[in-house]
Amino acid sequence: QVQLVESGGGLVQAGGSLRLSCAASGRSFSSYVMGWFRQAPGKERDVVAAISRGGSNTDYADTVKGRFTISRDNAKSTVYLQMNSLKPEDTAVYYCAATDAWGFDFSDSLKYDYWGQGTQVTVSS
After folding, report:
1. How much is the pLDDT for 8?
2. In this structure, what DSSP letter does residue 85 have?
3. Numbers of helices and strands, H then E, in the chain
C-alpha cells in the first residue's frame, strides 16, 4: 500500500509553466506504475500521463504531448509533472495515482488503486 500527496498547483497565466510533485510514502514505490490524471468541473477524470516502474517508458494524452513531461525519482519516491505552455483548457484538479497492475491501458483510471487528494491548477487567459 502507498499514500500519495500532490503539491505544486496554483494560478498561472496562459503560456506559463508549473511543476507538480507527488510524494509517496509506504513500501516499494518502484513496484508501481504512476499516472497523472485531471478533472475539470463538470467533466470526467481523464489521464494526462503515465510512467513505467523504472521510468524508461512514458505515455501522454494527445492534448498534452509536447508540452508536459512526466518523470520519477525512485530514490525519492516522487513522481513529477512538468507542465509548459499552459492553456486555459488545462485548468483542472490534478491527481496522481499508482497501480501494481500489468498489461493494461495506461489511460484506464479504474486500473489505478491509490490516489492522492489532488492539487488545483488554474490557467488564466
Report:
1. 97
2. S
3. 0, 11
